[in-house]
Amino acid sequence: MFTNEEISKFQHIPTPFYYYDLALLKKTLDIVIKESVQFNFKVHYALKANANTEMLKIISAYGIGADCVSGNEIIKAIECGFVKHDIVFAGVGKSDKEINTGIDQGIFCFNCESMAELEIINEQAAVKNKIVDIALRINPNINAKTHHYITTGLEENKFGINVWELEDVLMLLKSLKNINLIGLHFHIGSQITDMSVFKGLCIRINEIQQWFSEHKILVQHINVGGGLGVNYEQPDNNLLADFETYFRIFNDFLELFPGQKVHFELGRSIIAQSGTLISRVLYIKKGITTNFAIIDAGMTDLIRPALYHAFHKVENITTDSSEVRRYDVVGPICESSDCFAKALNLPITKRGDLIAIRTTGAYGETMASQYNLKDLAKAVYSL
Ligand code: PLP
């Protein structure tokens, strides 16, 4: 995966650090644009996946919109070149301050997740004597067949408005004079690799749209969220997600009314494979059934394995051994869950070797913390 030149450059950089392959990011964006533009789809990038300034500047230059889940993400998106009127704002718990940020910045749309939120946005807009565009985030009650922590479209989840509440929502909307319904929004989960799930989403959206049309409501756009998964097991053979199939499914199965535009909010599939967490082996320690390779990156740098039992490919990129041993690759943080791989066969590994934790461009740097007062890993970019 890495050239000898890159690896010798890594030797001189303090670890751990995130290494971003900008050429791969650009190649991914080229394909996203090519595959979406042919259907006149509008793509937004979900900042929550990675809000690194350099990466955001590259992404915004492609003219795609931003999907934000906090007031600070809205500000950051604008600072990094995203067009204000291309920003959507989701989240179950938007604070009054964040709502005001969205209103003041003149964003494209608030994706609203409850009746209580509709009332507060209306109230805040009225204070400013403005009319604010909103979409209803509807919970389609669809199983995304992914990890339960990143499944968001079931009735038991906290996200979105349930279908059985829609009559009440329409009644409420009639009385709220400072908000304007322009869209329907759906997001059913993340790291979805079974493409039939997206077909199921389209069919469900068609049914929901039918219900709205029976109630004489026609919205301008349908936002189908994000969720397209990436290949964590074999990144080298699958650096690009299958955007072609993904967008085609929505083109083939979503039934639109005249003039309606489809919006997407992709995070992981745009950025995951461009990032690698590079770390150095501090110690090798013998356990009862395994050896521990203790590295200098921890769950503070990459929390996905500890939080979701997520798999990331772990490689020793500087070993000179052809003999293999079994290791638990663990971090330095004072938690047993601070573990990146269990019983992993690696070439004989020693202090000072560099370890690459792959496919960490999404939900890596952006979820980092300073627990144990650890330093934050810096970002390094390919030339
Ligand atoms: N949109 C919403 C509302 C989300 O909550 C998320 C992620 O959780 C995304 C988009 C991006 O999802 P992904 O990174 O899986 O594409």
Strand count, sense and barrel status of the largest sheet are: 8 strands, mixed
Q: How far apart are the termini?
A: 15 Å
In CATH, what is the homologous superfamily of the largest domain?
A: Alanine racemase
Query: Which regions have little confidence, pLDDT < 50, spanning 5+ residues?
Result: none
Looking at the structure, the CATH topology of the largest domain is TIM Barrel
Q: Tell me, what is the CATH class of the largest domain? A: Alpha Beta
- CA radius of gyration is 22 Å
Would you write up a description of this structure?
The chain has helices at 4-10, 22-37, 53-61, 71-79, 96-105, 115-127, 166-175, 196-214, 243-253, 268-271, 304-308, and strands at residues 17-20, 42-46, 65-68, 87-89, 109-112, 132-139, 161-162, 179-185, 221-223, 261-266, 275-286, 291-295, 314-316, 324-330, 339-347, 354-357, 378-381. The protein is an alpha/beta fold. It has two domains: 4-17 and 273-381, Lyase, Ornithine Decarboxylase, Chain A, domain 1 (Beta Barrel), CATH 2.40.37.10; 23-271, Alanine racemase (TIM Barrel). The strands form two sheets. Strands 1, 11, 12, 13, 14, 15, 16 and 17 form an eight-stranded mixed sheet that branches. Strands 2-3-4-5-6-8-9-10 form an eight-stranded parallel beta barrel. Helix 3 links the parallel strand 2 and strand 3 (65-68). The chain is elongated, with a radius of gyration of 22 Å. The protein binds pyridoxal-5'-phosphate.
